């Protein structure tokens, strides 16, 4: 399993009395891209958060990029990027400042961080809003900036939770392009979305969840 | 130069994975971020100072025109004003992390959990100390105090007092920030733990204004120092676990 991007065995997650994931076993090879589908509440977000080590599974074993999640989460976190429902952005910092903080945290110098932040803002189409605080951004712009945050980290495994949410048609098109670029660079992708058609075009594998269990996809 | 021009000149992204900063460097990065946030929301900072001043003045109104009593209890009012204001600044410093789950963003970056604690606690220390620097001259004027010992001693007491409040406060604010009743929970958790800090800081501050005939200053400062060792030590050990296992 050394070249698996992730490998999970019997992973279960309980919130209070309710199981959001029930004995899920799955693995994904590196460089592959996975479409994760299921109705609202089927456990997609929960699975992505567990893969990102944002939360631990209640039961089960989990290896991400060759690292066991019980042997320390930092090596996993260094290589995994999560585009979440929450943007992780600071409302009162500018777009550029938000990116610079992350760039500095992953080890760039001040100069590199500034240059990379500017390059990312251009890439996600926010260069003109560089010095505007996030508080003034629309939902779609926040999404773009959150994507910039993900790209900046150049993750080996990118976990995208509803990446098309809150985007206008043009934004969806650009997002598809960015995701295709990521895949072309060899990034392993997990894409959770209810836009099955868009998702299918971008991915090679499929995992369909129903009430936290893996089932064969019908569509 | 317009942003677009800056971008045009930006060097290509390097391909090697950079080395992540260590505990100290990470703390500096996060502290800079926190201070930048404070600066960009300085209207809230002004409100904090105003709140502190109000609290201080309300105590003096409550006691009426009894100059003797006011002078005697001035240090107590001074520290209570700082303590009440600290609840506001501490919960605010975690509210900004909760807003878009930025704290998760930091954890997953990944930023060192101890560095997150240190940055928050140092940032709040700076804030409370600054507040003290505004309130101290005001207290001296309003309560008609005479500075018997040096102002340097007063500044030092304010520093160790603020440090103790901030370390314990950062720890509890991280717990309270996840609760629904966070605004009530923080003081309920924090104030009991800070009783010894309050006593020691008030005693030491009183001596700055009334002299120290019994040579007690050193023991009160030692107590404050020990409390700091405990709070900062516990914070460094426990805080990373608290933010991980939510
Ligand atoms: N923090 C939480 N506390 C309690 N229940 C939760 C929490 N997060 C998710 N759930 C529950 O877990 C189930 C799966 O949720 P989620 O993973 O968000 O599904 P999806 O992303 O597929 O819509 C749902 O039934 C949801 O109500
Ligand atoms: Mg979801």
Write the layout of secondary structure elements.
The complex is a heterodimer of chains A (219) and B (246).
Chain A: E1 4-15, E2 18-29, E3 33-38, H1 44-51, E4 59-64, E5 67-68, H2 74-79, E6 80-83, H3 95-105, H4 110-123, H5 139-152, E7 157-161, H6 169-184, E8 188-192, H7 196-202, E9 205-210, E10 213-215
Parallel strand pairs in A: 3-8, 3-9, 6-7, 7-8
Antiparallel strand pairs in A: 1-2, 1-4, 4-5, 9-10
Helix pairs in contact in A: 3-4, 3-5, 4-5
Chain B: H1 3-9, H2 23-40, H3 42-63, H4 67-98, H5 102-108, H6 113-142, H7 151-176, H8 182-210, H9 217-244
Bound molecules: adenosine-5'-diphosphate and magnesium ion.
Magnesium ion binds next to helix 1 of chain A.
Description:
The complex is a heterodimer of chains A (219) and B (246). Chain A is of the alpha/beta class and 219 residues long. Chain A has one domain (32-59, 74-215): P-loop containing nucleotide triphosphate hydrolases (Rossmann fold, 3-Layer(aba) Sandwich). Chain A has helices at 44-51, 74-79, 95-105, 110-123, 139-152, 169-184, 196-202; strands at residues 4-15, 18-29, 33-38, 59-64, 67-68, 80-83, 157-161, 188-192, 205-210, 213-215. In chain A, the strands form two sheets. A six-stranded mixed beta sheet of chain A has the order 6-7-8-3-9-10, with helices on both faces. Chain A has a four-stranded antiparallel beta sheet with strand order 2-1-4-5, covered by helices on one side. In chain A, a hairpin with a 2-residue loop joins strand 9 and strand 10 (213-215). The longest helix of chain A is centred in the C-terminal third of the chain and has 16 residues, at 169-184. The mean pLDDT of chain A is 93. Chain A binds chain B through residues 52-56, 73-74, 77-78, 80, 82, 84, 86-93, 97, 101-102, 104-108, 112, 115-116, 118-119, 121-122, 127-128, 130-131, 133, 149, 153-154, and chain B through 3-4, 6-7, 10-14, 17-21, 26, 29-30, 33, 36-37, 40-41, 96, 99-102, 104-111, 244-246. The structure holds adenosine-5'-diphosphate and magnesium ion. Magnesium ion binds at residues 44-45, 161 of chain A.
């Amino acid at each position: 399993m050394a070249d698996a991007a992730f490998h999970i065995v019997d992973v279960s997650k309980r919130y209070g009395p309710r199981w959001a994931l029930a004995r899920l076993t799955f693995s994904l090879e590196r460089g592959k891209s996975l479409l994760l589908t299921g109705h609202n509440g089927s456990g997609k977000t929960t699975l992505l958060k567990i893969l990102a080590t944002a939360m631990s599974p209640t039961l089960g074993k989990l290896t991400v990029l060759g690292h066991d999640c019980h042997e320390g989460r930092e090596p996993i976190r260094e290589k995994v990027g999560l585009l979440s429902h929450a943007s992780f952005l600071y409302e009162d910092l500018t777009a550029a400042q938000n990116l610079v903080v992350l760039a500095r945290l992953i080890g760039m110098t001040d100069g590199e961080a500034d240059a990379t932040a500017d390059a990312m803002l251009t890439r996600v189409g926010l260069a003109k809003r560089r010095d505007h605080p996030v508080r003034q951004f629309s939902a779609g712009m926040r999404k773009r900036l959150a994507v910039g945050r993900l790209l900046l980290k150049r993750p080996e495994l990118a976990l995208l939770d509803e990446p098309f949410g809150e985007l206008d048609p043009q934004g969806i098109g650009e997002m598809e392009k960015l995701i295709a670029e990521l895949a072309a660079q060899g990034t392993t992708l997990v894409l959770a979305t209810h836009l099955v058609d868009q998702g299918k075009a971008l991915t090679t594998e499929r995992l369909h969840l129903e009430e936290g269990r893996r089932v064969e996809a019908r569509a | 130069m317009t942003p677009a021009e800056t971008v045009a000149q930006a060097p290509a992204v390097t391909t090697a994975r950079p080395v992540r900063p260590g505990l100290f460097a990470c703390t500096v990065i996060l502290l800079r971020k926190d201070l930048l946030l404070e600066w960009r929301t300085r209207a809230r900072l002004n409100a904090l100072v105003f709140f502190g001043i109000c609290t201080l003045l309300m105590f003096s109104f409550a006691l009426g025109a009894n100059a003797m009593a006011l002078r005697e209890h001035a240090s107590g009012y001074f520290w209570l004003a700082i303590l009440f204001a600290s609840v506001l600044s501490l919960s605010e410093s975690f509210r900004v992390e909760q807003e878009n789950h930025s704290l998760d963003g930091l954890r997953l970056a990944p930023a060192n959990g101890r560095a997150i604690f240190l940055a928050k606690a140092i940032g709040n220390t700076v804030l409370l100390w600054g507040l003290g620097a505004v309130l101290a001259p005001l207290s001296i004027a309003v309560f008609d105090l005479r500075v018997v010992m040096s102002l340097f001693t007063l500044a030092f007491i304010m520093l160790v007092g603020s440090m103790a409040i901030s370390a314990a406060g950062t720890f509890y604010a991280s717990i309270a920030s996840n609760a629904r009743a966070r605004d009530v929970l923080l003081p309920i958790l924090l104030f009991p733990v800070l009783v010894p800090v309050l006593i020691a800081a008030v005693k030491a501050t009183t001596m700055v204004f009334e002299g120290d005939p019994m040579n007690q200053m050193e023991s009160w400062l030692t107590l404050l120092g020990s409390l700091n060792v405990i709070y900062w030590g516990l914070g460094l050990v426990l805080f990373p676990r608290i933010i991980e296992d939510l």
